[in-house]
Amino acid sequence: xxxxxxxxxxxxxxxxxxxxxxxxxxxxxxxxxxxxxxxxxxxxxxxxxxxxxxxxxxxxxxxxxxxxxxxxxxxxxxxxxxxxxxxxxxxxxxxxxxxxxxxxxxxxxxxxxxxxxxxxxxxxxxxxxxxxxxxxxxxxxxxxxxxxxxxxxxxxxxxxxxxxxxxxxxxxxxxxxxxxxxxxxxxxxxxxxxxxxxxxxxxxxxxxxxxxxxxxxxxxxxxxxxxxxxxxxxxxxxxxxxxxxxxxxxxxxxxxxxxxxxxxxxxxxxxxxxxxxxxxxxxxxxxxxxxxxxxxxxxxxxxxxxxxxxxxxxxxxxxxxxxxxxx
Length: 327
Ligand SMILES: [Zn+2]
Ligand SMILES: [Zn+2]
Prior knowledge:
This protein is mostly helical. Helix content is 64%, strand content 0%. The protein has a domain at 86-243 and 314-324.
């Protein structure tokens, strides 16, 4: 089916990159988590936006099943993804001035605390601590990556936009992102990073408090933990910016492309695996290092099965509801 669609540079790159998209220096993935066909049929082609509305392959299969031409034409006009999707437009309108204010406040306080903590960390740094800092950085990245996966999975899978306060303010962006993945590339710095900066705030606040209330000896004793907390909070704060870059196919600075290419931050091809409907895997979006191992141990599907069994709630019910609001 996919072979009827004109092949693009994207297809070639997809084939070339999928198998080798994880931690190149640590392991190679022998088989892709999603096949090329699954990706092409069930996700939006972000580097080929003119083909985003509907794929040639699915049009042809619809042609076979629809009895009349009108129905076929109607189907072809309904966007499956992108800014013309009716559900995406409805969700975008729910971004309120109150939400914007919360994001602005979080971003400014967080940046102040980042600068303050950086100065304090550097002031207490001793060269013999360098190995501690490297280990703290690695654990900080892994914690942030796992945390990004857990929060992303929770928000994608459970709850509803109709929930008071949390729904419109914190779940709405996740719903919008699945049906219009490129909307994130049109968001400014505040809208992109406000919520992640908010998560990093209490960690940075506690860290600054520790620096000001503890003696020098105590600070030195706990230096590795402080470095870990600082770096972890920086990676948490940066996560949605990194996520935005993974959806940006034009105009990225060379250093970002370098970090993506070497899988130091979330690569674009790697994150495409999450964007294959029904969005049930690859939730980690800081570096994505944990995605493959978590998928292989069926971490997310096991958690979902336990929750569904104990509560009766179906995973992704609200996400599916929004995806179906195509017209
Ligand atoms: Zn998602
Ligand atoms: Zn995404």
